[in-house]
Amino acid sequence: MLDFRTTTFLTVCKYMNFTQAAEELRITQPAVSQHIKYLETNYGTKLFSYEGKKLQLTRAGKLFHKTLSTVAYDDQLLRKSMLQDDHLVSHLNFGATRTIGEFVLPERLADFFKTHPSIQLTMIVENTAYLLDKLQSGAIDFALLEGYFPKTEYSFIQYSRENYVFVAGQNYSFKKTPHLLEDLLNETLIIRESGSGTRAIFEKNLEKQNLLLNDFKQILEIGDISVLKNFVKNNLGVTALYEAAVTEELKNGQLKKIVIDDLQKMHDFYFVWRKGSVFSDIYRTLAQSL
């Protein structure tokens, strides 16, 4: 589906260096330049420019790269599927954000495998920013995301709608009875790492009230959800996260919900894949099955 000139273009984008691209492709540097020149002439626009000595993509080049990356990945997946002579979805290669991967997806994924026992699985559990990078590079087929993402740049459907709650340890003592986000500023706030969807949602809520994380008296940043919950259970601070992640702790009384009137109560999880993929219909069907 891709010819040798578009392959050259993608290789130059990989290194942003004509010499290194030539070495990987085992052709001469003038040949690389010729291939890029052909594409620029064919499309009537410059794909690369120089800022000093640094090679960079033009606006048209970025669009061309994004489109070709999707085509290249679909081509690889199609070739692999044809060789297997089986249904196109024979291997789930995807990512999920931590709340989804650890607390929402496990039972659904288990049920899916009971009816599709021959499917192979590769799943990574990471934050939203990391998964978007992997999706863009073609390292994964799709991602289940809880955080914000540029919706104009991807295809997606709603996966589920989840409760977003503020919680504290059962014996946590507030400086003042909280009703609004502003009432929490004197508390120790425990948050996920930068790039986390759970954190991004909380920051967006603060922004709506003209508040910042730095307005809090103390902030503890913890990337691991289990460690974060343990800190909250031990009354070391308070946090906002999805109810799905603390269902057990709320049930057994280790944590309690704190009603904050100006905190967003619900948020959507999304099933996301590359825009323009020829496998979009399959991904939509798959999203409804998981």
TrEMBL record:
UniProt entry tagged with the keyword Transmembrane helix: no
Key words, A-Z: DNA-binding, Transcription, Transcription regulation
Pfam families the record matches: HTH_1 (PF00126), LysR_substrate (PF03466)
Entry GO MF terms: DNA-binding transcription factor activity; transcription cis-regulatory region binding
Domain of life: Bacteria
Domain named HTH lysR-type: residues: 8-58
Family: Belongs to the LysR transcriptional regulatory family.
PANTHER family reported in the protein's UniProt record: HTH-TYPE TRANSCRIPTIONAL REGULATOR, HTH-TYPE TRANSCRIPTIONAL REGULATOR GLTR
Name used for this protein in its record: LysR family transcriptional regulator
